[in-house]
Amino acid sequence: METTVSLTDALRRNFGFGTFKGNQEAIIRSLLDGNDVFVLMPTGGGKSLCYQLPALLMDGTAIVVSPLIALMKNQVDAMRNFSSADTVAHYLNSSLTRAQIDKVKADVIDGHTKLLYVAPESLTKEENIEFLKTVRISFYAIDEAHCISEWGHDFRPEYRRIRPIINEIGNRPVIALTATATPKVQHDIQKNLGMQQGAAVFKSSFNRPNLYYEVRPKTKNTDHDIIRFIRQHPSRSGIIYCLSRKKVEELAELLRVNNIRALAYHAGMDAATRSANQDAFLLEKIDVIVATIAFGMGIDKPDVRFVIHYDMPKSLEGYYQETGRAGRDGGEGYCLTFYAYRDLQKMEKFMQGKPLAEQEIGRQLLAETAAYAESSVCRRRTLLHYFGEEFDADNCGNCDNCNNSKKKVEAKEELLAALETIAALKEKFKADYILDVMTGKATGDVKNYQHDQLDVFGCEESGDRRFLNAVLRQAVLAGYLSKDIENYGTLHITAKGNDFMKKPASFKVVEDSEFNDEEEITPMKGGSACAADPELYAILSALRKKISQHLSLPPYVIFQDPSLEAMATTYPITLEELQNIPGVGEGKAKRYGEEFLKVIKTYVEENEIERPEDLRVRSVANKSKRKIAIIQAIDRKIDLEEVAISTGLDFDQLLDEIESIVNSGNKINISYFIDDKLDEDEQEEIFDYFKQAESGSLDDAYRELCPAYNEEEIRLVRIKFLSELGN
After folding, report:
1. Which end of the chain has the lower number of beta carbons within 10 A, N or C?
2. pLDDT band per the 50, 70, 90 thresholds, residue 108
3. Is pTM, for the whole model, over 0.85?
């Protein structure tokens, strides 16, 4: 076995590092000694080095099983950068041509390749198995080993076939590595890989003290919140995770519109685009990558300064691994998550159709993420406890709950009631069922088990269920209860809990945070009273009236009231800013904007107003396929009723869309359709009404013009009027 000095020399010679981190040296020595090794090491701890260095030092080729093509490419590129020969590392997967595969195999057979990365699917192919039987293998490395377990966040059934294939190819030492594994997942990994007996186990602390954890409620303004956050951290590298590919694309476009260098990344993109976008992020050609969970596994970018979750992940393992991509260099890492319980309910619906056991596991994992998000307890403490590690400090000083700590309230009686209920239920049920019994909720299951007949049924009938839930969660953290993950979260009383029942003592808890899914920021309503600056609103109204009189048009044709309210709120002073005001658009901005901008600019300067420029978020131009299809159909003079059918709208909805197009400053001509419904005199009568009207209100028009004309006819002529005179 090599001496400490020579192993350190090998580290310096091959990777340029002077010292090992954490358990790296002990892990490498154990593998060099021929042992199976299990490594649990947080993101940024240096897992890859634990098999890369031994591969360079041992005879033969190390077979590295890796779940993602992008991850393999990244790690092969990294190894080649450390070596003088490109043949030192190769990957074998479905992205290669036959000629490329032959070149890889030739380099392996010739002994030039020290690391061969393979996808689990590639490992199962018969031709690859036969090839590997002819190769001198140094050891097998199973990267992202949590994929083996159904309780892991990236379960891959192919990972469960690895051990039988290793047995067929030829036995050599196995090193399994993961950044996220609960005790249950660790057990699954070791059992499935046949590593229970004699394997060396190395577990590092999950605590990442440099990461700041924060959870905010998701609202209609979350997109805006994200843009403001990024503007507060200019030129910082960051990752934003979304669950859907559609949201990834939309958010990346919105960021670019707001002058943030961002690109999208998801599995639906072609491989070349994905690779180019990943490289652009690594080479800092862009600052932000918006991605699904397909991005980031094994990405060795040390200076990611923030990770934002637009949606709460499906599991705390996923959350921990994704947030762990921030601050890998030990510097600042801001982990911001937007949470709405309805998102978890959607994910639960997506599980329908899967095997019942898988659904139950998925529900349990979602329940753990909900508990983490809603809890007011130190986030670091909750997270570490989930992974089987205790964090004893009362305040970590680096999460939102600790920095905005709530007052603790006494919950001795509630804890005692919970423990007595769990005892009466023979410790066979999980939290939701226990709360049903405590609050006297006679569900079907409660009646079937006759638990509504127990003395403890309804013992907290007048209690607040959310507070009682917080008591259960914090009793687990405090060690009075334990949660049996393998039995889908059933709660058991610990020795400490039994002592409490015999001799109750003070037990103080903090109430959970309330995330109200109905709580949305109220949009601006009509009426000048809503304008942030009533004085400017009055000035703009006067200017609008002056222009309308000069052009012999009703004022609302120039700009409608909500547009003036928005101007008096955000103080636009450039044409670009003005055309992003609701109801303005490029056409109206160019036609009427100059005088309004001049007035606003003068007002801002004279009153020394600090404009909320940092709060202004540009909207992506509304060029949806539907609107484009409607405009093109009208240009071709297609009957509007046929347009409604082809776009999946009823006729009123189609008119709503056309009004929106016209109000944004686009000129369209629907005379061909109106001429079939109304003669020239009828059109002129409605047209003249809108010329004289003080407001463009349809309700006022209906009262004045019905029953001579129906609502549809009035709306059609109003659209024609606004398009011809306003645009």
Report:
1. N
2. very high
3. no
